[in-house]
Amino acid sequence: MDPFVRRFIRGSLVWLGVGVLIGVAMAVQPAAAAFRTAHMHANLLGFVSMMIFGVAYHVIPRFTGRPLHNPRLAEVHLWAANLGLAGMVCGFILRVVRWELGMAVLAVGAVLSAAGAFLFIHNIWRTLDAPAPRPAALPTLVR
Fold first, then answer.
1. Helix axis angle, 50-64 relative to 71-97, nearest 10°?
2. pTM
3. How far is it, in rounded angstroms, from Cα 125 to Cα 79?
């Protein structure tokens, strides 16, 4: 398994933990319901999307028989997606207490997160468009 695939999957598990902790905080302290958007993004963009990214990067090259177009781009995607999501979650939480700062952090996070998603789209699309590998030559029979 490629290192970036493992990191996407581990990242998804970390985001699940973050989403669960925010959810527990909302259940215990009703005023924390103001953080529901952060909770939702941690779970959906964090856990679900990061898991999908990791599994797709591992499975699609194997299903198509083509190498991943650009593994380095997948690594950049990993950082952009996770840093962007961290900015979004922090921005959603910050805007409850400091609206302007929260909105600025949220905007930067959203742009990074979107950039990561477009890197994924590009990388997978190019992987699917790659020419099929040539089949190995069959051994010739010697008589």
1. 160
2. 0.90
3. 20
Q: Give the Cα separation of 32 and 43 in Å (integer).
A: 16
Please give the Cα distance from 18 to 86 (Å, whole number).
10
Q: How far apart are CA 109 and CA 46, in angstroms?
A: 13
- Report how far apart, in Å, the C-alpha atoms of 20 and of each of 27, 49, 79 are: 10, 16, 22
- The alpha carbon of residue 4 and the mean position of all alpha carbons in its chain are separated, in whole angstroms, by 11
Within 10 A of 104 (CB to CB), how many other CB atoms are there?
15
**Tokens standing for residue 137:** 């030559």
pLDDT tens across the length of the chain (143 residues): 999 999 999 999 999 999 999 999 999 999 999 999 999 999 999 999 999 999 999 999 999 999 999 999 999 999 999 999 999 999 999 999 999 999 999 999 999 999 999 999 999 999 999 887 777 777 777 76
d(CA 102, CA 33): 17
| Residue length of the chain | 143
Is the sign of the CA dihedral 95, 101, 105, 107 positive or negative?
A: positive
